[in-house]
Protein: Exopolyphosphatase-related proteins
Amino acid sequence: MTEQLNVQQMAERLCAADNILILCHKNPDGDTIGCGSALCHALKALGKTAAVLCSDAVPSRYSFTAPVPFRGEFEPKTVVAVDVASVQLFGENNGMPQYTRHIDLCIDHHTGNSGYADFTLLDGNAAAAAELLYEVISEMGVEITPLIANCLYTGLATDTGCFRFSSTTANTHIVAAKLILAGAQVEELNTLLFDTKPRERMEAERIARNHLEYHLEGRCALMYLTRDEIEQSGVDPADLEELTSLPISIEGVKVGLLLRQQPGGSYRISVRAAKGVDACAIARRLGGGGHTRAAGCELLGNLDNAKSAILAEVEAELDRPETQEES
Structure:
């Protein structure tokens, strides 16, 4: 079982550590990469040896966070996970498994965190792990430089859909304001993260839209992309995350699904839910997890089987009396 820490205790443990390896989750998003990079820069500012490891390549759109990649140049004495809810999310590439056998510290905002680390700083009310990490770095006595501010703002903005999702709180905006004051280049970041779309990503969206399906009397909308279609479009897999919000944006839809076939043939399923519907409950019953309005899971088998399995759980969630009362 993990021992829960507060911000001060987590900062103290990080300040006392050295030779620190920071782990991000597979299929990295802006929050895990932004946090990994920000923490690495903060630790280096204290004169410590630190580096970042991710199972998958860091998407080019996040290259400005300048993560220091781990290449085995030191023997990790402390392993820290950022924005990772369970060990299954670390991935298998880049030698990741040898460093995930024992995790010392975890900073996370997923309420379903499995407690795999020895010590955990967890706040399910935080809209992003970056919201928590801002407090930790400040408590460490490290100056929030423009680079660190850019990294943390990236985590905040991407995990809240540019502050549109229901997880966004007053504190989220307060932290964002402090990051702006510290030098975060908000206009440039928002343009890069939300308003700039590669042609390959637009082609993938065109294909996904052609697969749009409605289920359960129109309460659920589903899109999918096969592995061949993803390769045909040439899209960076990280850019497909943006497509997850398309089905739920349709009028009258309570649950939006995006199914993406992975290199091994399984289907990664992103679940987005309207107010009053629990996306995490849907995903959790299939071995996944996430947040109330945004969650995901991965299923083996062909497309038809994946559709049937996820739609059955969506129907069960939508037909719960509590859901019908709230909707």
